[in-house]
């Protein structure tokens, strides 16, 4: 067998900075009270620009990335889940939630010290588990809970009445936060945060769009560590600025033909969170010359996309790019509500066909040869409709493989079985291991 | 007369087909219990709730992953097996993510003339839910008008409201009899009565409830009431389970489930705006845990029911994988126990292991009797 083309590769220059931002984020959260600041916790899908109006010393810790961090540490992850089980919660509940609760019940912070109690919880309600997560956490910590119901149907059917319902709740949440913290709300800070939120999430979509290039400048395993910054705090200037730097570097990689996977010859997309403790399955696929260029999850959990003038999928234009000046609190809340409601990862909550359409768009525009769906027992929300997605893709002639697992509970992931399935799928796609790639992997 | 409800429960599909033939009306499958049925009744339609069959099935595997609740899969199986092939339309009012899959797979693979999704608020406790949901009910009304090709008049809507409220009122009256020392109906019979109201013509069902109420004065069950129990939790219409529980020295005197009291508990309140009246009724009803935010308003209601009906214990019936209930139950259990109501938690599937369940129920009843002794 002839050795396939080997593309040049290079590490990302701005990679260490992403790590620094993440480390600083958890440190700031833990130390916020020492400096007289505010702490809030909630979901990565909460309207995180809104609490920013309380001041520059407001720090957040979103629950999902916190639990995903713990999932890497299998021992502590198990201890957390055991603590949650011991309180009587069902084992099949969201594994992020079980880990977060466990860390809270044990009063142990993964990054050292006691679990930092927030001043309030803030959440958007789209997923049954998300809503219960912060309801329970707020009761345990005895702090207020502000939840914003976003169940207004898919973005394509959004109208004034539906948007207003969300906006009015956002107004209420500000009043609640003022009361909970005793602080006066600053609309200018909100407006700045909304601009940053739109900028960072549009930039992330732009970065994902650059992955249409062959060879792909980024592989999904790397993207997991980059998209996470938007899940931490997409409304922060630091995150938006970082994505600008990353976008420029990825653009440069495309121009120079720098690949993420040296022997790229087959491009796939995946779905939902991966089993965090077993990301090596992505490295295993690389031995076959396979690069996963992303997923609706990696792209659209935080990236905000829109149809471009030529009909292709790309970044949604920010209010600033459209020349829209946000002047008031209400205008800012309307922008953030509309912006978030267009999030790709919220659409399948209403109809799996919308997600299938997105996947087919990715298959065409990102030049995809096959799709691997993770039937993720740890996340009901993102696994919702996966089987219908599978049928939709098969009907369109796209090769699909599924595997069962759990993003954060290793007891529900069978590594050997999964790699066997991957091997069979590779065979279906006509791929064999590339000896040079296997040697590199072993090294 | 009370046997009629069991007959309807068992032969629900034959009833719907006959109703269609008899009236020439449309039958609309409703998903969960938040669909504003008043609008369907106003349009002379038969709302028929989609429920499972409690039989093993394997037809849903390609459509819904096995980590989602057995109820949502069992319900879809009924459609895929053709048991609901008389439906003209399907409607879902936003509830849990599990059942939304049933609705979506249904509308993808079992096409009907009319399908509609109502994005009903989840945070029913916020005041903003009221004007918003009123508008959604109005949009639903318009969609129905478009489907049937004629406007629904005020008098049509009034008829829909009156019909739904009459049924709710009568079911509440029937449940009042369960407060008696010796209720004239078993929990199983009450379950048949309440569940059938979700797929039998409202007026016909109300007439049957009314006739049954008249018979209660002279009805005495040939059995001891035994321990008074409450059934609380996820959707459950497993008749065999209720029968088993009541065969070992107890009577289920009250429930807090969507197959039962949560469905009919409150009537609508007139406020000058018909659509607001309908919308508010669904926001004000005892909530499913999926809609109980930000506080657990449901817990107080459960406790009130337990006290009003003098329940000596509660069986928490947890549908496997049902996140909304799983997210409530540990705290609900603690709350009930702190307030003097012992609990037994059981996890339910489409088909249930009655033998092991029986042993656990008997042990639970013994514990309660033990407390009575000392």
What does it look like?
The complex is a heterodimer of chains A (443) and B (374). In chain A, helix 5 (128-141) links the parallel strand 3 and strand 4. Chain A is of the alpha/beta class and 443 residues long. Chain A has helices at 15-31, 63-71, 74-86, 95-106, 128-141, 160-181, 187-210, 220-233, 237-256, 280-286, 296-300, 329-341, 344-347, 352-365, 380-383, 386-395, 415-428, 435-442, and strands spanning 38-42, 58-62, 120-125, 145-149, 266-270, 290-295, 305-307, 313-315, 370-376, 400-405. The two termini of chain A are 22 Å apart. Chain A has 18 helices and 10 strands. In chain A, the strands form 3 sheets. In chain A, strands 2-1-3-4 form a 4-stranded parallel beta sheet, with helices on both faces. Chain B has 374 residues and is α/β, with parallel strands linked by helices. Helix content of chain B is 50%, strand content 12%. Chain B has 16 helices and 8 strands. Chain B has helices at 3-10, 12-23, 37-42, 70-80, 97-109, 129-148, 154-176, 187-196, 202-216, 239-246, 261-264, 274-284, 297-308, 323-326, 329-338, 354-373, and strands spanning 27-31, 46-49, 89-93, 114-118, 227-233, 250-256, 313-319, 343-348. A 4-stranded parallel beta sheet of chain B has the order 2-1-3-4, sandwiched between helices. In chain B, strands 6-5-7-8 form a 4-stranded parallel beta sheet, with helices on both faces. In chain B, helix 5 (97-109) links the parallel strand 3 (89-93) and strand 4. In chain B, helix 4 packs parallel to helix 5 and helix 8 runs antiparallel to helix 10 (239-246). Chain B is globular, with a radius of gyration of 20 Å. The chains are: A alpha/beta (443), B alpha/beta (374). At the A-B interface, helix 5, strand 4, helix 6, helix 15 and helix 16 of A face helix 5, helix 6, helix 14 and helix 15 of B.
């Amino acid at each position: 067998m002839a050795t396939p083309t080997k593309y040049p590769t290079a590490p990302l220059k701005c990679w260490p900075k992403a790590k620094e931002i993440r480390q600083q984020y958890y440190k700031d959260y833990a130390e916020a009270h020492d400096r007289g600041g505010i702490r809030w916790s909630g979901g990565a899908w909460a309207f995180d620009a809104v609490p920013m109006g309380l001041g520059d010393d407001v720090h957040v810790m979103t629950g999902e990335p916190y639990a995903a961090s713990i999932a890497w540490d299998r021992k502590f992850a198990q201890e957390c889940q055991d603590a949650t089980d011991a309180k009587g919660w069902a084992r099949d509940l969201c594994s992020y939630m079980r880990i977060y609760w466990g860390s809270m019940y044990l009063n142990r912070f993964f990054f050292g010290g006691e679990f930092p109690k927030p001043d309030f919880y803030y959440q958007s309600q789209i997923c049954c588990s998300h809503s219960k997560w912060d309801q329970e956490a707020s009761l345990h910590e005895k702090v207020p809970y502000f939840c914003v119901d976003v169940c207004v149907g898919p973005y394509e059917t959004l109208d004034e009445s539906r948007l207003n319902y969300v906006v009015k709740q956002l107004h209420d949440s500000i009043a609640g936060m003022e009361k909970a913290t005793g602080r006066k709300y600053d609309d200018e800070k909100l407006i700045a945060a909304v601009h940053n939120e739109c900028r960072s999430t549009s930039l992330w979509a732009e970065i994902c769009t650059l992955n249409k290039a062959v060879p792909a400048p980024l592989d999904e395993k790397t993207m997991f560590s980059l998209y996470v910054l938007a899940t931490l705090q997409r409304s922060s200037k630091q995150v938006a600025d970082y994505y600008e730097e990353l976008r420029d570097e990825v653009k440069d990689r495309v121009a120079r033909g720098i690949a993420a996977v040296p022997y790229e010859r087959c491009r796939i997309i995946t779905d939902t969170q991966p089993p965090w403790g077993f990301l090596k399955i992505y490295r295993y696929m690389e031995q076959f010359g396979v690069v996963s260029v992303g997923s609706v999850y990696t792209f659209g959990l935080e990236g905000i996309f829109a149809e471009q003038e030529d009909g292709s999928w790309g970044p949604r234009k920010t209010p600033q790019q459209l020349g829209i000046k946000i002047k008031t609190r209400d205008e800012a809340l309307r922008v953030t509500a509309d912006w978030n409601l267009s999030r790709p990862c919220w659409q399948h909550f209403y109809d799996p066909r919308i997600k299938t359409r997105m996947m087919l768009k990715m298959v065409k525009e990102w030049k995809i040869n096959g799709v691997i769906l993770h039937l993720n027992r740890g996340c009901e929300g993102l696994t919702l409709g996966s089987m219908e997605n599978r049928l939709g893709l098969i009907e369109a002639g796209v090769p699909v493989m599924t595997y069962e697992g759990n993003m954060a509970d290793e007891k529900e992931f069978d590594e050997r079985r999964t790699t066997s399935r991957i091997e069979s799928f590779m065979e279906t796609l006509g791929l064999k291991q590339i000896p040079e790639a296997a040697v590199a992997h072993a090294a | 007369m009370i046997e009629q409800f069991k007959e309807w429960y068992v032969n629900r599909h034959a009833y719907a087909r006959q109703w269609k033939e008899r009236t020439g009306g449309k039958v609309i499958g409703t998903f969960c219990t938040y669909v504003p049925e008043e609008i369907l009744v106003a349009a002379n339609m038969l709302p028929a709730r989609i429920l499972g069959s409690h039989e093993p099935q394997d037809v849903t595997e390609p459509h819904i992953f096995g980590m989602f609740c057995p109820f949502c899969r069992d319900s879809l199986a009924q459609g895929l097996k053709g048991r609901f092939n008389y439906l003209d339309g399907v409607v879902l009012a936003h509830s849990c993510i599990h059942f939304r899959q049933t609705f979506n797979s249904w509308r993808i693979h079992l096409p009907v003339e009319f399908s509609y999704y109502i994005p009903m608020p989840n945070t029913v406790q916020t005041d903003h839910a009221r004007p918003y949901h009123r508008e959604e009910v109005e949009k639903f009304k318009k969609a129905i008008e478009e489907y049937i090709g004629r406007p629904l008049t005020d008098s049509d809507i009034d008829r829909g409201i009156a019909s739904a409220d009459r049924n709710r009122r009568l079911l509440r009256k029937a449940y009042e009899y369960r407060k008696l020392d010796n209720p004239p109906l078993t929990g199983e019979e009450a379950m048949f009565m309440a569940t059938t109201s979700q797929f039998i013509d409202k007026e016909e069902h109300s007439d049957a409830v009314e006739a049954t109420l008249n018979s209660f004065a002279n009805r005495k069950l040939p059995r001891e009431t035994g321990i008074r129990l409450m059934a609380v939790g996820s959707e459950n219409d497993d008749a065999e389970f209720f029968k088993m529980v009541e065969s070992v020295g107890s009577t289920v005197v009250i429930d807090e489930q969507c197959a039962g009291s949560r469905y009919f508990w409150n009537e609508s309140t007139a406020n000058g705006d018909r659509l607001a009246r309908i919308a508010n009724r669904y926001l004000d009803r005892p909530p499913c845990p999926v809609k109980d935010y930000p506080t657990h308003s449901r817990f107080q209601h459960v406790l009130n029911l337990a006290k009003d009906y003098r329940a000596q214990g509660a069986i928490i019936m947890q549908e496997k994988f049902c996140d909304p209930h799983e997210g409530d139950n540990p705290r609900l259990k603690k709350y009930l126990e702190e307030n003097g109501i012992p609990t037994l938690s059981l996890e339910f599937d489409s088909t249930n292991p009655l033998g092991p369940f029986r042993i656990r129920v008997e042990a639970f009843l013994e514990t309660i009797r033990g407390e009575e002794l000392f």
